[in-house]
Amino acid sequence: MAQETKNNTGILPTFILGYSQISKGQASGSFSYALPSGMGASFIFIPFGSDDGSSWRTITISGETVTLSSSSSGSGANTYPIAAGLIVVYAVNL
Asked: Could you report the per-residue pLDDT of 28-47, keeping only the tens digit for each?
């Protein structure tokens, strides 16, 4: 039987490192998660509703730490409305 090539065309297994709930208006803070050896981390932000669009936060990740900081505009990488929500952190291959 010939070797089959696997295509990742569906939902992939994901190793969730943890999550943090953030409140509306929260524009600072940091959260740390333990990383398995040889892995990096990424995140998704899931807002709980909407915001008026007048305030923004930047969410960055470096190593094992996720950091929130205020942003002066809604443009730029990793910039999100300052609505309440959930940050889900997951492991990625380096």
From this structure: 999 999 999 999 999 999 99
Phi-psi region of 63 (alpha: psi -120 to 50; beta: other; left: phi over 0): left
Q: What distance in Å separates the CA atoms of residue 68 and residue 59, rounded to the nearest whole number? A: 5
- The model's pTM is 0.81
Cβ-based burial of 41 (10 A; exposed 0-12, middle 13-18, buried ≥19): buried
pLDDT band at 13 (very low <50, low <70, confident <90, very high): confident
User: Which two structure tokens, joined as six digits, stand for 26?
Assistant: 């929260």
In angstroms, the CA 37 to CA 94 distance is: 10
Strand partners, 45: 87
Residue boundaries of the structural domains of the chain: 16-93
